[in-house]
Amino acid sequence: MSEKKMSRTHRLVLMAMLTAVQIVLSRFLSINLWNLKIGFAFVPIALAGMLLGPVSAGLTGVVADLIGATLFPSGTFFPGFTLTAFITAFGYGFFLHKKQDMLHILAAVLFSEIIGTLLLNTKWLSILYGTPFMPIFITRVGQAVGMGIVEVIVIKILAKYMPQMKKAI
Predict the structure, then answer these.
(1) Which residues lie across from 32 on neighbouring strands?
(2) Which end of the chain, N or C, is less packed with Cβ atoms under 10 Å?
(3) Is the pTM of the predicted complex or chain greater than 0.85?
(4) Burial 7-20 (b: 16+ CB within 10 A, else e)
(5) Are 59 and 15 in contact (CB under 8 A)?
(6) Partners of 38 in the beta sheet?
(7) Distance CA 46, CA 99 (A)
(8) Fold topology of 3-168
(9) Which of 45, 158, 62, 53 is nearest to 95 (CA)?
(10) Which of the 8 DSSP states describes residue 3?
(11) What confidence tens digit (pLDDT) does each residue in 114-155 have?
(12) Domain boundaries along the sequence of the chain
C-alpha cells in the first residue's frame, strides 16, 4: 500500500507496533553501559523511516524513547536523548523513505552514527555526567564504527524485502 493510500489509523497502528518493538529491543535486548549501547533497536526506527517517512519516523522515535524511559528507566531521564531519537529517526526517513540503494543507506547510517551517536549523545553524556566531551567521544568511536557496519548490513537486507513489506501493510 502506498503512503498516500494508508489511512491515519493504519499509520498510527504501524507506528505503535514499531514503537513497541523498539522499546523491547532497546530496553531488554541491548547491551547498555553508561556510555555505550549495542543492539538492534535501530531496526524498527529504520523501518519507520522507510515505510512512513521522516516525520512519522521521528515521532515514532520520540514516543519510543519517552515510553521506554518512563516504563523501563535505565538511568536518569535526559531530554537530549529524546531529541537525538527524533533527529536520528527523522534522518532514517529523510534518506530511506523514497530509495534504499547503497548510497542512501550509507547516508542514513553516517547521519545516525555521526550526528546521533558521536556528536549529540556524546554531548548529552558529557553534560549528564560532568565528564569532558573528548574522552567520551574517543571511547564511542569504536561503537559507532561497529554499529555503523551492522546497520548498513541489516538495512541492506531490509531494503531487499521492502517491496514485499509495503504490499503486506
Answers:
(1) 37
(2) N
(3) yes
(4) eeeebeebbeebbe
(5) yes
(6) 31
(7) 13
(8) Arp2/3 complex 21 kDa subunit ARPC3 (1.10.1760)
(9) 53
(10) G
(11) 999 999 999 999 999 999 999 999 999 998 999 999 999 999
(12) 3-168
